[in-house]
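G., the chain you wanted modeled:
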Amino acid sequence: PCDVRGNALPPGSPPPSRSKQSPNDWSPFQDRVEFETAEFLYQRVQMSQPKIDTLMDLWAASLIQYGGTPPFASHRDMANVIDSIPHGDVPWQSFTITYNGPLPQASVPPWMTQEYEIHFRDPRLVTIWMLRNPDFDGEFNVSPYREYNEDGEREYTNLMSAEWAWRQADIIAEDPSTHGAMFVPISLGSDKTTVSVATGQNEYYPLYLLNGNVLNSVRRAHRNAVVPIAFLAIPKTERKHNDSIPFRKFRRQLFHTSVSTVLSSLRPGMTTPEVVQCPDAHYRRAIYGLAPYIADYPEQVLASCIVQGWCPTCLKPSSSLDAHVDCTRRSRELTDLLVASLEPGILWRDYGIVADVIPFTSDFPRADIHELLSGDILHQVIKGTFKDHLVTWVEEYLKFTHGDAQGKIILDEIDRRIAVTPPFPGLRRFKDGRDFKQWTGDDSKGLMKLRQVYLPAISGLVPADIVRAMRAFLEFCYIVRGAKHTEKTLSRMKDALKRFHDYRKVFEDNVRPNGFSLPRQHSLEHFEQHIRNFG
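Predicted structure as tokens:
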């Protein structure tokens, strides 16, 4: 700990007391009536601006004979007072990006002249706001640590308990100017989302920020440890331009330029310590750093500047991702060396590298996008391998083996078995079976309940090896989702994955004749290293 100027405090020094606001202090509002009027109009009834103006005019007219005035002169006056509140969320800002490349002499596609607006909040201010949140006191790690159980086994739990944070702290300690500073990992996540099908397939592209010092249990409890910091632009064009090289390059570069610009306020604090207040009220010198990036496979392809179908973590060829051989891991240094040495066509074909776009992580110290892309349990494991692959393969297997009509009869029987599952705490019921229009993460999780829903539903209707493959995968899934890992759990996880790989071969003769070179299933091989790195 240090004082507010960054001077080190003696060991055992108590934290400074947090200033407490007087119960009669309604600032920036003049009094309680003004505050409650603003809360009622703006938050509870969300009255329109013209109606607020009318209400204030009537209120003023009623007070003329008494020489009084209403709480606000107009809706604008009320909005100005609300905006002056010193507490609360970091305000939103925006900037625009436009295409600045060469224009064709003939007709110019609209996307080349359009302005793309990105809305964002200053991630530095958001991080400072998170760091000083007293709700996180006692659930916040100020330094990396190694934890062991009663058997002497190391336990991987939170981000600061794993190897990556430890390595980052070692790097920071080597520099005399940053030695002793608290490492603040800034994790990111992005997920292009369709908010409402009923309102015209509105798409949004949120970018989230997570503070890595906070315990995993806090983030999972939705206690303001994960917040949106930006809404990225989604460039669109006519179908005839969708696959054009200039548009595809612009779409990639727009993402990386946008993210780099949004995060730019963090860059100075990655090399020069900044004094921040922590949940325990102590001040500490902090060094920021980009931490794990959580995203689905298409987002990983975009963020790592690789070719679709390749792995963002290793250099295993896209045509043989299911080969059981060790492969060189990707890294920022290796990619820079390859780009400097080889032609773009060779990089694309032999290494899966998109050479004409630079990842946003290249703008920040100690950041390697290939190292930071951690496993995404929801999209790669639950919705990807289970829902998109295995459940679909079972359906295709039944129709391939028994014909379309008989296959549908068997699928109806599976749905009936799922629908009659009796109620039980923690067990979700599917009254219509697994045949619903749009799967969510909760749908997949509920259907995956080991030995309780899907396995008994397909047992006896498909070959035993399909049941064994499903069981091995579900065992892997439940282990990897655990809140705490040791060498024993990691060994069990590897064994379950090996059995899944052995038993999934039952699908080769029918629904997967070309093998299993699938990026999402291949990513399961990297989960052990992700856990060791990030907990």
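The chain has a mean pLDDT of 90.

Shout if anything looks off.
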